[in-house]
Amino acid sequence: MTITVGTYNVRGMKDDVAALARVIRAMSPDVLCVQEAPRLLCWRRRRMELAESAGMRVAAGGRLGGVAILLAPGVRLLHSESHVLKIFLGLEIRAVAIAVVEVEGARFAVASIHLDLDEAARLHHATEAVAMIEQVAARFDAAIVLAGDINEQDDKTTWRYIAARLSDCYPRAPRGNGLTFRAARPDRRIDAIFATQGLQVAWCGGADADPADLVAATDHLPVVARLVRA
């Protein structure tokens, strides 16, 4: 069976929310990992409204850390949890949102992360998040998908750490140039989807959305992967 997973930094929904919803619909994900989800006033309602506008529902994610997971209709939610990662004085609070889902009998443990700009904190949080998703996946006999804003490129330490444990989906079956930041003139790939080695990657790359919507929606471009589990 196949599952479509997306990841998208929505910058607190500070830009064109209607364009944002159209982009998510164009992505057509079964599961969407969100970063910079609203986390201040009326954060629950705003996340729910975004999900509903894109034909999805909120499955996981607390206020702190601003990460969330949305699900499409027909995707069964088996379990969800959210964790604040180690707090570093003077840096933003980071978190991981985890959802275990079932699609056509196949189980996936999906994690949404947004790592720090500080290199040491970024690596520490990555090790925490990978350990957490591995533990959850083992409990549910699920394939792992970890996605988010890594805040560094693929030649750096944290990216290499994650990619040594989970497969970076884009190089395996690239679609488009893979660049995700900044949306108007992207020149780097800092958003990614990683998955269990056993999952086949049909393709991974950008969304087939209106270019004007992609620029208006937020400052990141989304990443979408089509994954196949035997």
Automatic annotation (TrEMBL):
Pfam families: Exo_endo_phos. The lineage of its organism: Bacteria, Bacillati, Actinomycetota, Actinomycetes, Streptosporangiales. Residues 6-220 form the Endonuclease/exonuclease/phosphatase domain. Gene3D superfamilies: Endonuclease/exonuclease/phosphatase. GO terms for molecular function: endonuclease activity. This is Endonuclease/exonuclease/phosphatase family protein. It comes from the Bacteria. Keywords: Endonuclease, Hydrolase, Nuclease. InterPro entries: Endo/exonu/phosph_ase_sf, Endo/exonuclease/phosphatase, GPI-anchor_lipid_remodeler.
